Amino acid sequence: MMMFRGKTIYKRAICFLMVLMLINSKPFASTGPEIQVFGMLSTQNVIAGDFLLLAFEAKMGNTHSPEKIAYTEIVNSKGTAVEQVIFELNQGKGQAILNVSNDLPSGYYLVRAYTKGSRLSHQNFGVFHQWVGIINPQLPPRFQEKIKSQEYTRDKEPQIEIISTKNEFLPNENIEIKLKFNQREIFGITSSLEFPAISKPPSQNKAPITYPNEASESEWIPEIYGPIVKFKGGKEENKNPVLISSSGKTNKFFAGNFDEKGEMILDLGKIGMMDFLTVQSSNKESLDQIFLETSFWSAKPIIDQWPEMTLTGDIRSFVQKIHESRQLMEYFLPLPESDYSAVILKPSKSYILEEYNTFDDLWTVFREYVEEALVRNQGGKSVLRIINHSTGKAFQNGPLILLDGLPILDTDALLKHSPENIREIKVTNYEYLNNGNSFDGVVQLFSQKGDLGEFPVPKDLLLVPFSGVQPFVEYKDWLLVKTEENRTPNLKRLLYWDIHPIQKAGEEYTIEFQASGIEGDYVLEIFPANSSDQSSKTLWRYSIRSEVH
After folding, report:
1. CB contact at 8 A, 348 and 483
2. In the record, which residues are listed under signal peptide (predicted)?
3. How far is 149 from 382, CA to CA, in rounded Å?
4. What is the pLDDT of residue 12?
């Protein structure tokens, strides 16, 4: 999707809300429809430098939320986010990976997840919360000899029967467990290494997490295509558009103008991971004060007393062992690669430069080989014009020029540059419209290594950090690869991960996974999708030992 002006987005939002009201057959409040969320983390405790998996779902009544984007954060005791991730939803569902920094001190942190629509209902299950313990051997928590046994009390009898012939397994042994569900529901299932003798945070039923009343925004723009971002601090321009492109695994181009408030709203559409957004304008002064408003929720949670983590003395060696095993792993579970594409739009013609690279500059390449282009001298500088495919005559103005997706404003400098490291040129010889801004054709150049072909980065280029969106991924198959298949050491702390719908009461379901090579105690946790509270889960504990009794 290209960029839309603020008014256009609000019109889309109004139409979207009208459709939602028809679907649910009841009117919504002015703040939008009520969206409730469910979430599940892969483990309760994690070593600093490791990762967490999050499963997330947003529902609106009996149907899924049409939003395509969700947000998750790890929040410290000061209410500050220490990790933030934007991830993609498919029919209201999505999964995210949170990398835990090596620098975080030991303690309890709050993971929260939401959509821009669901956080309006933060008082009614619109925000997922779960405590996670982060243990850093270099920055350890408080130790004490004994910790009072803490178990969450259950309001109801467990709805799941767990059947296994044993609860002790050898390292790398195949584990098979039968589950019998007594109710029709969607369940999240995870199994991970259990950290012994760690004080547990309070149940959310006993220690609720709330937000200030003003945390509910008065404006909500539904992200039904992709993330919507807002630039502020600009100056209104009527003639010269602001040129914005993404850099990294996702290459997209946007053109737009700041409004009378100095704001510019972008609907980024379907995007993947990236490094940053680049911002340029021929009117450099208009960009002096601009900044990107965060898409994450600024509201800080209100908690009566932040839980304190304490460990018993005999866990020090255990934590150190797990920390060392993580460091010794010869593989890392990476995010799936996004499809890389720097092509902004379909070209009229492409030119491969391998056979034309004997020339000294791109000026000669365009003059001799690019049939759709004319090079001219204007005021002592070289300019480029594209021949309109409809009229057969040159456009009046210069084209939009993109080098590896980066807009180039200095045409003269580019035409003087050597073509040695330029792989391909794509030309579009018709008018290109982007958010009401017209360009007289498009020229896209691609370097051999994606590094601008050694063309100098424009000095006035503004780089705005933006990591993009984790693509929709279900991590079950990625996680359950057996070690003999990928020839990596089996030092996993997370052994199983799945979201499973139960179609009828009494249904039996068998799960299989490989025991870790790390000896210790493990726990299987099963969460019903109608509750993220710790007291509603079902637990089954087992151990992995080199000598089974």
Report:
1. no
2. 1-29
3. 78
4. 53
